[in-house]
Each structure stands twice: as C-alpha cells, then as structure tokens.
Write a structure and sequence with these properties.
- By secondary structure, the protein is mainly alpha-helical.
- The chain is built from 3 helices and no strands.
- Helix 1 packs across helix 2 and helix 1 crosses helix 3.
C-alpha cells in the first residue's frame, strides 16, 4: 500500500503545476519550498489520511472541505 501511495504521489507532484485544484496547488507550492522528495512523501501522507477518513466515515471525499480546529473557534464572550 505504501508503495502505491508513493508512486501516485510522484505522479501527482510531477504534474501538479498543470492543474488548479487545491491539492495540486498545495503540492506544487510545497515542491518549490521543500523539494521534490519531501513533497512526494507529504502528499502520500496526505492521501493516506484522506483515504483513512473516507473509509472510516463512509462519506464521499470533498476536495474543497476546510477543516476547523476546535481550539481556533472564538470563545463566547462573557461579561465580566
């Protein structure tokens, strides 16, 4: 499974500059900042996490989903 994730990530990082979806933009920017191999491993990791989430939740993948960390939500204002 790991080999398949890496091979897919290599292909995706190599052609990311030709696509405009959010993950491709992220992969292309990461390649520029961190280099080819780190971008490939990071994308393989990201894909593995996406696969795990889709399999465990049983929901369709939404490429435009933005997650919000629970501690980043503004706390309720209390008088005092």
């Amino acid at each position: 499974m790991r080999t398949l994730l890496i091979q897919g990530a290599k292909s995706a990082v190599m052609t990311a500059h030709k696509r405009s979806d959010p993950i491709s933009k992220w992969a292309a920017a990461l390649r520029e900042r961190s280099g080819w191999q780190k971008a490939v491993v990071a994308l393989a990791n990201k894909n593995a996490r996406i696969l795990w989430a889709v399999m465990t939740k049983g929901e369709a993948f939404d490429a435009r989903h933005v997650s919000v960390k629970p501690n980043t939500i503004a706390p309720a204002l209390t008088p005092g």
